[in-house]
Specification:
eight-stranded antiparallel β-sheet, about 20% strand, 19 helices, sterol metabolism, EC 1.3.1.72, Delta24(24-1) sterol reductase activity, alpha+beta, binds flavin-adenine dinucleotide, binds lanosterol, binds NADPH dihydro-nicotinamide-adenine-dinucleotide phosphate, five-stranded antiparallel β-sheet, cholesterol metabolism
């Protein structure tokens, strides 16, 4: 049995140390069939163009449910009926059980308008569905958060960040308008020019201002390939300098870093290229099932110590961390990157996060609770060095995910202290390698540093902030005004009530 764990029953030992048996022979085939059927359904609906006509009646059904909630006395608050295990957040929400659940079957792409350069989608459309549909038409949304199952609704109501964010900002900054059903049952549309207060209050509001029914997102032309340059860098000062320089260079369409120790990283910069610019000998289709997991491929380049250039299909690039769930899958299927496994079963990967969540046992949950950290910390790039040094001392988890993003000074929950500024998302996912790791104390210390640096934590993961501390990290001024104006107080809980540790299991 694995060192350091104290599990008594044989079942627990089997379910943890041999979880891969269950994952490989049960969850993987189910994930594959589920994905295939979902793909087939979206494909048929998109080709028949039946979604736009059906959208109106789906919105009416949500309005009917809100009216029903009003008629039945508004005794509990509302949330969406999407089951907790289906979401990409780390934990299952507990609040759903006691709330009035609104069924939102909003899963379709409504319209691609290449003249206006927009796509209109329902909130349950996921990143894989959107990037594949747009990719075939030669377009893309400017920011494609990389995990296949992330939904537009979750990314708007929470947030999304990717390696093009140094140009485009966070997911909400590429959104042009939101359609919502409000607490009084009315439908409203908001954008920068129309109901702009509501438009700026929606991001990070976690479904507590209204029910999202459609989102209009900017699209840009996409090439089939990107040229990706991998630059191994040694020394923390050099890493920070290279990262800062490349993030500010707008000629780079994509910038990302993977840091493998306190003083070793690979900084990757990508540019969209025409087919005629692709050097055939340097094509790497990293999305193919038999390819090495992306973070392992990058690690090899670090070890070789030489710059490298590759041409990568753009959809493969967007979803480069999907097959290995960044580096989280190595703890669940330890041989997932083994060449035999990749060739024989790799085509069914990735296993669906939702199925992993659904079948997570209490023992595995405890293991993650006590021996694992999952956090995305968004801090100004000027504080990058200080933060990385602190994370090295307090958790020593590698690789670290480094992703720059521009944060405009818009009104709302999340904005820089004074003016538009370049931020970095430092993703810390894995087993801490320090003796004094304490899940609550260590995470709180990290949160304190982030707050001191004028930063924010992403709320799909655990937050151990008290309500006062949470209010200090996230600006609630506009949010509270909108909640009063739209009579949300009786209709939806506050964000904190949805994301604090007691609300999640
Ligand atoms: C087939 C298989 C499936 C697994 N599935 C899961 C799973 O679904 N969820 C899960 O959390 N772990 C999973 N693990 C990790 C497992 O619990 C053990 O951590 C792993 O077997 C290696 O532990 P070790 O003590 O032998 O070695 P080491 O890697 O040296 O472990 C050192 C310490 O870290 C702890 N640790 C290792 N991995 C993790 C982790 N992922 N999270 C928290 N602490 C960890 C160990 O318990 C131990 O105390 C799986 C492992 C295997 C082999
Ligand atoms: N690269 C990235 O940027 C990554 C981002 N993430 C995070 O994952 C989360 C997204 O996961 P996902 O599974 O898509 O979303 P979730 O189902 O987790 O939804 C997140 C929140 O959005 C609310 N919400 C979703 N749809 C609607 C809607 N139609 N109307 C009102 N509220 C809605 C949910 O409300 P309710 O509780 O009522 O259901 C919930 O509070 C985000 O928080 C994101 O930040 C995770 C990994 C990577
Ligand atoms: C901003 C960015 C890039 C975030 C990346 C976040 C990923 C690393 C997160 C998102 C969902 C996530 C929290 C998840 C898990 C690992 C880390 C993930 C993949 C796992 C699979 C770990 C194992 C757990 O038993 C369980 C299955 C519950 C979760 C599910 C969600």
């Amino acid at each position: 049995m694995a060192m350091g764990k104290k599990f008594d029953s044989l079942t627990e030992i089997i379910l943890i140390d041999y979880r891969w048996v269950f994952v490989c022979f049960f969850l993987l085939p189910i994930s594959f069939i589920y994905n295939f059927l979902y793909y087939l359904r979206s494909e048929i609906i998109f080709r028949l163009s039946s979604a736009p006509t059906a959208h109106g009646s789906k919105v009416k059904s949500i309005q009917r449910q809100v009216r029903q909630w009003r008629e039945t006395g508004m005794s509990t608050k509302m949330c969406t009926a999407r089951p907790g295990w289906q979401t990409m957040s780390f934990r299952k929400p507990m609040y759903k059980k006691s709330m009035f659940q609104i069924k939102c079957n909003l899963v379709d792409i409504l319209e691609v308008d290449t003249n206006k350069q927009t796509v209109r989608v329902e909130p349950l459309v996921n990143m894989k569905q959107l990037s594949e549909t747009l990719g075939r038409l030669g377009w893309t949304i400017p920011i494609v958060p990389e995990l296949d199952d992330l939904t537009v609704g979750g990314l708007v109501m929470g947030t999304g960040v990717e390696s093009s964010s140094h140009i485009y900002g966070l997911f909400q900054h590429i959104c042009l308008s939101y359609e919502l059903v409000l607490a009084d049952g009315s439908v409203t549309v908001c954008s920068k020019d129309e109901n702009s207060d509501l438009f700026y209050a929606i991001p990070w509001s976690y479904g507590t201002l209204g029910l999202l029914t459609a989102v209009e997102i900017k699209i840009i032309p996409a090439t089939r390939f990107i040229r990706l340059k991998y630059e191994p860098v040694k020394g923390l000062n050099e890493i920070v300098e290279t990262f800062d320089r490349e993030s500010k260079n707008k000629a780079n369409h994509f910038v990302e870093g993977l840091q493998y120790s306190l003083d070793e990283a690979v900084i990757m910069t990508g540019v969209m290229v025409k087919d005629s610019e692709v050097e055939p000998g340097k094509i790497n289709e990293i999305g193919k099932w038999y390819k090495t997991w992306f973070f392992k491929h990058v690690e090899k380049i670090l070890k070789r110590g030489k710059d490298r250039v590759e041409y990568i299909p753009i959809v493969d690039y967007y979803h480069r961390h999907s097959r290995s769930l960044f580096w989280e899958l190595q703890d669940i299927v330890p041989f997932g990157n083994n060449i035999l496994f990749r060739y024989i079963l790799g085509w069914m990967m990735p296993v669906k996060v939702s199925l992993l969540k659904l079948t997570q046992t209490e023992a595995v949950k405890k293991l993650y609770e006590n021996n694992h950290i999952i956090q995305d910390l968004l801090v100004p790039t000027r504080t990058m060095k200080e933060c990385i040094e602190f994370f090295d001392k307090s958790v020593k988890v590698y690789p670290l995910w480094l992703c720059p993003f521009n944060l405009p000074n818009d009104p709302g929950m999340v904005h820089p202290k004074e003016k538009e500024e370049m931020y970095i998302d430092i993703g810390v996912y894995g087993v801490p390698h320090v003796d004094n790791f304490h899940p609550v104390k260590t995470t709180r210390a990290i949160e304190d540093l982030v707050e001191k640096c004028d930063g924010f934590q992403m709320l799909y993961a655990d937050t151990f902030r008290t309500k006062e501390e949470f209010y200090r990290m996230f600006d609630h001024k506009l949010y509270n005004t909108m909640r009063k104006r739209l009579t949300c107080e009786s209709a939806f809980p506050e964000v904190y009530e949805k994301v604090n540790k007691n609300a999640r299991d």
